[in-house]
Predict the 3D structure of the following.
Amino acid sequence: MTTAHHVPGETRPGGRTARTRQAVLTAVFEELGEVGFAGLTMERVAQRSGIHVATLYRRWRCTEGLVCDLLTDLSSDVPLPDSGTLPGDLRALALSITAFYGEARMSRLIEAVVSAAARDSQAATVLRTFFGERLALAGRMVQRAVDRGELPTDTDPEKVMAALGAPFYYRILIVRRPVDRELAESAATAVWAAVRAGAYVRTDGTPENGAYVRTDGTPENGASPGG
């Protein structure tokens, strides 16, 4: 969920380990573009990156580990919209998702990660963590809307964000068609209508993963930040 993705290997600071990781992820990104996940091998990545294959197996274990790390890397810098209204933020984020997955290689990447997660427990853990972190991060813009008084205080930010993302993953993974601006606009409009109707309120009175922190740093439940 980002407006522009960083190609692995571009100028990011770091020591030898960071440079090794970026060289490998750049190679994975390029290999996916040429041969897809089905043709991806540790040996091909080693040859393209110039990193010994033993290093790849020691650090990433398998091609599933490589593609999961690549997805995390490409999505690590997530600009969160802040238009001043939730409808504006939802639309901006939906358009960002469209831009991110609009490139065929990015759609193939998420397909590869989901496929890997079905076969490899490490990949499954990475996938759950990845989406959990992205939902929590994007949920901050919903919490801002709650703080502004746009939404009821019992609105669940993660449910809202999951609803916004769902049409994109249905399009990519199930019906296997490209995402486009029309999908972004309809998803944002539908979620805004649903959230105003109270479709995403918490049923137990608490967030699924603990207390959310308001934009002023105060937890929603009124407890101190330290507990």
